[in-house]
Amino acid sequence: MAQKETNGSNGEHTTRPPPTPSPLRFSKFFQANMRILVTGGAGFIGSHLVDKLMENEKNEVIVADNFFTGSKDNLKKWIGHPRFELIRHDVTQPLLVEVDQIYHLACPASPIFYKHNPVKTIKTNVIGTLNMLGLAKRVGARILLTSTSEVYGDPLEHPQTEAYWGNVNPIGVRSCYDEGKRVAETLMFDYHRQHGIEIRIARIFNTYGPRMNIDDGRVVSNFIAQAVRGEPLTVQKPGTQTRSFCYVADMVDGLMKLMNGNNTGPINLGNPGEFTMLELAENVKEVSWILCNCKPLFLQSLVNFGGLLTCLLNFAVDQPRSDSDDDREHS
Question: What is the set of active-site residues?
Fold first, then answer.
């Protein structure tokens, strides 16, 4: 049955009922596994999402990734598993699979990567999202888009609520990402209104944790990389600017709750608490001191106390040791 929703400027819009999913969903004698597609699933957040989805024995997970920023190493524990499938695929090309849910994460999220090829970035956001929405329409799947806090641009409102429309620059060097995500959100709602697609939109704020790319240019990885290499931590003046940082496991929990809940979104996902850059640098400095001066068994007992230490341990594992490090013990 069609539903009506109100738009403040255009009056009422009629939303069609969602497409019918696979008949297996309604089988009385055979309970099929939930088939879930994760685009960008070899990336930082995507691979942690895959780990969590695979914990449920009723899930079959398909990852589509072109490995521009993602890595097979992030998924190596699942390769060969009977409920897991990995496809090298660029979402700017159509993908024909039978799935029940789509987590659409595919897009470089670091300025270093998305500014490397801005046209490709905006094509990934726009054409890639169109292709995933077309797939969702064909198979009757629910689709979740990971958007970004960057849709708010250079905000004049702090903190930003989901009702804030932003203060944006459509022609800047970062616009391929910011505006691409804004168009992707527009496409999601237009498919929802016109075709009845079940959509979910998450606006992700700063996230950190294991498997971050140490050279991605973002502040947490920059500080950690400098600490691991024994370099001074570089803080841009004045140092009092604030950011919020959400640990990746919490972000994944939020994405899954949004997908399986009843709220269409957009929903801001992040940590409401904020650090100044000086506070963050000091925290990284303290934890790096622990890494360099404590015994391995003690380090292992500290891992569960915070994701920052986990990041440092993860990055330090493959760092070459110099002769001057012989009197130190590393995990």
Answer: 177
